[in-house]
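Quick one:
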Amino acid sequence: MKTSLEWLSDFLAIVPTEQAAADALTNGGLPVERIESIENDTVIDVEVTSNRSDCLSHRGVARELAALLDLQFKFKPPSALESSTNRTSDAVRIRIDAPAACPHYTARIVRGVKIGPSPQWMIRRLQSIGVRPVNNIVDITNYVMFELGQPLHAFDFDRVSGGEIRVREAIAGESIVSIDGHERKLTAGMLVIADAQRPIALAGVMGARDSEVTDGTTNILLESARFDPLTIRKTARALTMKSDSSYRFERGIDPQLPHLASLRAAELIVQIAGGELLSGVVESGEAGAKEKCLTLRAEKLNRVLGVALDPAIVTDALRRVGFVPTLRNAVWSVTVPSNRLDVNVEIDLVEEVARMVGYQNIPIRDEIAIRVAPANPTLACIDQIRHVLAACGYSEAITVSFVTDALANLFTAKDHRLLRTSAAVRKADGQLRPSLLPGLLEAIRRNESVGVMGARLFEIGSAFWSDRDGREQERRRVTLVGGELRDVRGTIETVLQKLNPARKFTVIPEQRAGFGAAGRIEWGGEVMGVLGTIDPAIIAAMSLRESPAAAEVDLQVLLDGAQREVQLKPLPRFPAIARDLSLVVSDAISYAQIAGVIEACELPHLEHFDHVTTYRGKPLEKGTKSITIQMSFRSAGETLTADAVDAAVKRAIDAAAKQLRAQVRF
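Output:
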């Protein structure tokens, strides 16, 4: 922001030299980009960060310099004399139809003004910071904005239809010709200022040509308001319109500024353009702001800064920036002024103290204190899951938590209800995801659209729904998508084996929302998720070229079942002997049933066994399948013989034949 040193003299008893001001602001976190000499004035260009909207005015920069250099700050509140017995409330009505986008709106009326050029002192100040003079009324609104930081707008009141001001969202198809002469097509969601018939301004951005102040204007309506930063930013970006007003509204306005700036502008209008200021101000919405009271601990302050500061120095630093600190038992209770929208938590107070003390005055220590904290077992377990999934060829993705209604319904269980956000910005995709699958499948689709086929993705995140009793639920899930069913199953088994090899893993056929062929995953007898292929209807609806398999499991079950302490055992001294066993069984028989039969046999020296593959087709009979299992045998005291292993395998075959009518496939 360009700042005139001559203008700063209105707020500082002693104005520092341009170099002193530049050094102080730069050291305080507001870098000065350049210094210019303009006639009898010096202008410094201050780079104001996006969180310091309080410094987007001469008053704000002066207040900052006064704090940094310990100077006397002076400010005389305006005193506009209402010279009329007529009331503003009798002349105009204010209605806010979009309170979330406009929390506060004020209006004053001045009748009988005389439009003409501004006085030379005002023209000189505006030109010094690069603002082109227009006429006295427009110049006053610009002057007050650069003086106090509050954008204002003056309407030709005679061109405001119906004596009514409405703050509302634009209706799709409406248009407005802005002051710069361009016709702007409006869309729903854009905020406008309207009269009884039409939009007369783009709220917080620019006024309309058919309500602007001209040489023939005699009565004006002065607007001073607060608008939602996000709404203004979206409108300005959509219409490619940037203005000094929108720049300030996008960064937030002090809730107490609208009244102050309105009064200051009215004072200048009466002094410069004459006219009759109607009595009172018409307003709608909330004028004030809730008081912020934060806590600053001396221990926290000294630990972050690395130096023990005298409490008196800290108290003085906080007072210099306009805060009201109260010290008690090494803890400051700090009341934050309304203009400091950027100060919201304790660390913000630490930063303010550091700025006032001066970063250059905080001693540098070559040694740093390192406090070693024990590893969080939950986070360590989640990291282990991530590493295993990555080792199995899956890449981690982070998708948004919102999905469209149509997509959410495809993945919602019958006894679950969807949760919807009330945020207006999420009208198209306002459903909270009931599963992580929609986002991952959309990521698969985007990969396919750029020629990346066969992507394998996983995500660890939350799913949301409400149960039959209306209780809102949030569950952390581990979800993976991509590859064939056996790949996904093998990956899940690998994860479970790493977490706790002693717990039994089974998959029981069961239909689930979003899946075609699917099964319920149980781990140690506890239901933990689902595994299967994606429903073909969903594949078609999302225009996927491939049909990936997927699994979604409950993270909490994984954490609860994980073996946190590492179990060490000696390396085996003797070799293992592996045997592959293929059993032909009915389609109704699951691998879990076969595994149960083998476990019940309690075969000697059986170290472990795993599912290898399932086959259907010729030469097998219809309604049957072949399940191949690999069994590993090892003795702790000797090298096993083939005869001993074959005898154990035969026991398993006989048991499967007797209980499941299984036949060996050769």
